[in-house]
Amino acid sequence: MNEFSQRRVKLVFILSLFTTGISALWFFLARSLNLNELSLYIAATIPFFICSAIISKVGNLTLARFVYLVAFNISVVLTSSFIGKAGSVEFILLFAMALPFVFFSFRREKSYVALFPVLSIVLWILLYVSDFNLFTITKMDTTLAATYIYPVSIFTTAVLVTYQLIFFSMINARYYSNIQDEREDAIEASNAKSQFLSMMSHEIRTPMNAIIGLSHILGDTNPRPNQEENIDALNYSGKILLNLLNNVLDYSKMETSGVALDPIPTDVMSAVKQIKKIHEPGCLGKGITFKLQVDEKLPMLLLDIVRFNQVINNLVSNAIKFTKQGSVTLKITKQEDRNGNVCMRTEIIDTGIGITKEQQEKIWQPFTQASISTNRLYGGTGLGLPIVKSIVEAMGSTVHIDSEVAQGSRFYFDLEVKSISNEKLNQDNGKKGRNLKGRRILLVEDNKINIMVGKQILERANLVVDVAFDGLMAVNMVKENDYCAVLMDIQMPIMDGYTSSIEIRKFNTTLPILALSASVFLEVKSKIEQSGMNGFIFKPFDPEDLYNRIEAVIDLPLAS
Length: 560
Description:
By secondary structure, the protein is of the alpha/beta class.
């Protein structure tokens, strides 16, 4: 038996013995009042309670509970019928009505939970309808009944109901204690998971920053034609690895806080051209074609392009993975205008292996692929489509799929997006041209490779770059020099980025400090804000994004 059943066995056993004792007291009370016939009936029910205790210990809990409840109800009604209304013995049936709710399982034995309270109610009604002549018309003297039996009846009812309430309270206390323990365990497990993912994010993103950064630098230094393909492959592989890491982290965040959207004015054509640039080498390597079809009628849209690109990247990556010949098509069309909003349909069509009807329901589950053989042949975490589903639903739509085995698949969804006029877009984008030449910036970083990569990227924008290898060194250098901005790593020896920023803010409250963070978790963002930093840049970073963020915060004169 499991623990749940053992608790009920113990309850039935103790209650059977307890009721045996109460029945014995009633037997002697009936004897002392010369109610010999009643005493015999009471004596006849005592063996049933003893049998209930024995049967529950033997293991037949269902039979034990049946014996107990039937014997108890009959015993109370018999006694009440012999003593009459003046004795109020029938009130003990209140205990019998509530008992099935602790005797039986709500999940597995609902019918018994309903049956036995109804039995007690029916017997009580029959007593009143028959004027307490249900088993006999001979009654005890009403004066004696009121004087001796009534107090005992009320006392017995009070004892049994009190026992019941205490038992209920103990069960509830134990239940809520278990819930609290499980809640604390769940919080600890969640915190441990977040800490682990944050640490792994930092450890993986740090070298990835170097890989993606160096591939960008190499591609920007006029490589020989025979090197370009290798550089593109290096950059593409780094971005695929980053996408895999982002999927794992995104799924973890979506479990707890859902999907946050940040819509910005977007040129869809320009955005998806970048997607084609990323995925086309992979298609060429497999001998398949990548087709891009974007409706020229699409205006500028207010869209979370980062999340939109994430959806398309996942769907396109899947399509390429499962397509051996033919093509992969990304198609975006304007459907209709609705009160200033544009209905835009996005389709990813492939000529790959296809998905059966049965498998189409499974693929949206986390860590699940269409089949075990699919996982063995093609790999993957099984997180891409669940993340796609979560993001598209957060955008107010649903992903649909049409697929035939060996023919290919079509994933599509419709988004209703606010359109942006060119005049408003020009106002929003009314920023000065980039002018970083001669600006002095402090790069705080302890990883030598990241220092090399970061310094080269920054110097390509004609920035003057100083380097601090830990947070304490950064504090001292800020005291001695004027910088237009500080790029602050978070995890460093001697003094971390949080503490360093707090120390800098004690004597300089205006210097822009941007965190270089390899963690994307909310608690890290919160600590960045609390320590006085002005924002953060995720590692690995895109050079153009880095330049834009620096340009947005600098406000100091040129370096001397």
